[in-house]
């Protein structure tokens, strides 16, 4: 299948839009698309690992080229000048040599190139990197040419790329201006170009992974120590079985109704609608659940499953303490043993929830390692599980971890989206135009989004935590700033340094203070079905005040990120549109933070 | 790695030492390897520090954090190994979590590891199912990807894993994380016997091994021992001599 290269990238969002391509190109030669090595480095970090990173040069010195190859690092070099063969020979990575084609004689030159690949383009007009013009493809048709070396460029766009491929059968197609609007790359055009070039073989290439079970595209899997493999396999089988067992489902829904108090309303927010002056705003009220957040939906499901597997001991991690409280609550209800690992820093900022867990009879273990937040709590919970795996279930609190956790947690949280869908149809007779939910590990968001994934008219937006700002060191914006990596049992997106060390996240909201995002979200970000935006601490706090005063609902800090993002979305929406916000939890647990941060509030 | 099979044939037990690369500074790496090979260890596992080592207990985690504080990365370790100016006489095995490898690039990692003189790789969070991510590249470089088996590995899976085993098999002797233990569970002997019967390559016991009593208990049921936390801690506290009796207890010819 023909590979795709998106060339001349300069901005983050365009690198991300190109995530289904095979190669991205950075132009180091003088051009309006020129980037510095540092900029290419930054952009390259956002690309998936097996993406080819190609540097474009015109008559650069060997030193300049090697320097860029090492620094970015580049996996291929593309040369557009009159580079001598000696230079091409010296370059360690594969080399692409570019040629302009006008006449059949020009085609001859291609076969003499010693480069690994030959790129053909129409003669340049604006600069030597590429012309943006189509040349006569038929020139390539009846000549002896190794098409497995051929890269086709020059004036390609989403409308002509299929024809170009069928006529010239190249190894790769290369596009730059054809995916731009007014001289700037365009995310939609990039994605459409890739789709056109790859056709329906797309789905198959996404499943490059060895064992597609438990993968969302390239993300997911079961990356755990061997000691845990038996437990994750048993869980996989037990969940498969339970999912299809009507009795199990009945019991789960029984507790959701009688104990949690579902279904939760989809409240029309009249004053927010008026204040924002845009779409009609509806609030999905997960804050009304027993224990105060959506976490309990999952805790019940998994606790029932654990018992079904004969396990009466539960270990969990918690960030904001909402998942810890939900787990402690359910363990009290079902008389299960409960240990909760919680970062020292989170224990400080979520005192109330710590006390609730203890009151409910759980053992709360303080984790002092690392930044003393959610990531460290997950590490300790995993170590505890490795040590006690024979009789203990790990009740993970978000759509994270080794398969089947991300799928299972999503399924248990999907009650949010299913109810919402039914309710909005009852109230408005149609689906919403946009839905916003906050993402930490991603459980409330995936639960809300999943039932709407196939409804193309519904825009789905995840709000992640920008902390002090995505351009500072202190944030938890995994999808804005992160890259592919393996953490806590799954391939997902994580915040990491160049050596693959996971970085600490920062957010005022303990529940979003995590340097990873579950595998399904990572996949939905890549394929563009969900967009993710980052909200700062200050924006979230402002939304806490706004919603409290306009609707009499004090949201959790996590949920406030969704509200702040919704407000931004509302700016560009009209009065006849519908916007749903997932209010994942209530603010009781955050009262100490609110009192401190909003001091002097009048 | 062939040497390990020969050792087994000759009836000798192997002693594999684990060290944390860069604990105490990168210059310690060469010193420690030289010391250990002079002291007669059979092979050395070179540990790469990682921010989230969930298979490790407090000793190795702390050593990793010290190494990270020194700025140690996978790349720096491989570079340092390529610069060794002494003869490496024992097989070196790189032990690293998966993420640094993925970040570095699996193919590039195996190439550099080969240049660094490594014979094998152990990745504790890369299960057998996902070995395709690394194994094809390792094969190209003739590096063996060492598999771990544990007390919780069910029989059918154990057979699968052992069928493909190369180099040696890492038999994890505790249900838990790394770190010295006072005692090993009774069932460990039966487990290692079972593994050894099925394994085409030598079987080494690791995790928790720190005392001569552990060696005595398992001597007849394994082909060697892997000692990590005890060595890492002894190097850190500058008292590696304390471990000499343990090394001798394993490697000395033993009358049956
Ligand atoms: C109220 C609330 N919302 C959201 C989250 C974030 O988690 P997730 O992304 O899994 O929904 C948390 C986590 O603690 C929470 O307590």
TrEMBL record, chain A:
Keywords tagged on the record: Amino-acid biosynthesis, Aromatic amino acid biosynthesis, Isomerase, Lyase, Pyridoxal phosphate, Tryptophan biosynthesis
EC number(s) recorded for this UniProt protein: 5.3.1.24, 4.2.1.20
Top-level taxon in the UniProt lineage: Bacteria
InterPro entries, per database record: Aldolase_TIM, PRAI_dom, RibuloseP-bd_barrel, Trp_synth_b_CS, Trp_synth_beta, Trp_synth_beta/beta-like, TrpB-like_PALP, TrpB-like_PALP_sf
GO cellular component, one term: cytoplasm
Pathway: Amino-acid biosynthesis; L-tryptophan biosynthesis; L-tryptophan from chorismate: step 5/5; Amino-acid biosynthesis; L-tryptophan biosynthesis; L-tryptophan from chorismate: step 3/5
Cofactor names: pyridoxal 5'-phosphate
Positions of modified residues (N6-(pyridoxal phosphate)lysine): 295
Swiss-Prot/TrEMBL catalytic activity: N-(5-phospho-beta-D-ribosyl)anthranilate = 1-(2-carboxyphenylamino)-1-deoxy-D-ribulose 5-phosphate; (1S,2R)-1-C-(indol-3-yl)glycerol 3-phosphate + L-serine = D-glyceraldehyde 3-phosphate + L-tryptophan + H2O
Residue ranges occupied by any N-(5'phosphoribosyl) anthranilate isomerase (PRAI) domain in the UniProt entry: 4-194
This protein's record includes keyword DNA-binding: no
Gene Ontology terms, MF aspect: phosphoribosylanthranilate isomerase activity; tryptophan synthase activity
Stretches assigned to the Tryptophan synthase beta chain-like PALP domain: 262-585
Chain's role: The beta subunit is responsible for the synthesis of L-tryptophan from indole and L-serine.
HAMAP family named in the record: PRAI, Trp_synth_beta
Protein family (similarity comment): Belongs to the TrpB family. Belongs to the TrpF family.
UniProt-listed NCBIfam families: PRK01222.1-7, trpB
PANTHER family referenced in this protein's UniProt entry, alphabetically: TRYPTOPHAN SYNTHASE (PTHR48077:SF3), TRYPTOPHAN SYNTHASE-RELATED (PTHR48077)
Summary of subunit composition and partner proteins: Tetramer of two alpha and two beta chains.
Protein name: Multifunctional fusion protein
Organism of this sequence: Planococcus citreus
Name of encoding gene: trpB
UniProtKB/TrEMBL annotation, chain B:
Biological pathway: Amino-acid biosynthesis; L-tryptophan biosynthesis; L-tryptophan from chorismate: step 5/5
Keyword Transmembrane annotated: no
Active site: 45, 56
Lineage, uppermost ranks: Bacteria, Bacillati, Bacillota, Bacilli, Bacillales
Alphabetized UniProt keyword annotations: Amino-acid biosynthesis, Aromatic amino acid biosynthesis, Lyase, Tryptophan biosynthesis
InterPro entries: Aldolase_TIM (IPR013785), RibuloseP-bd_barrel (IPR011060), Trp_synthase_alpha_AS (IPR018204), Trp_synthase_suA (IPR002028)
Similarity annotation: Belongs to the TrpA family.
CDD domains tied to this protein: Tryptophan_synthase_alpha
Enzyme kind, highest EC tier: lyase
Pfam families, per database record: Trp_syntA (PF00290)
Alphabetical list of NCBIfam families matching this protein: trpA
Name of the protein this chain belongs to: Tryptophan synthase alpha chain
GO molecular function, one term: tryptophan synthase activity
Assembly and binders: Tetramer of two alpha and two beta chains.
EC number: 4.2.1.20
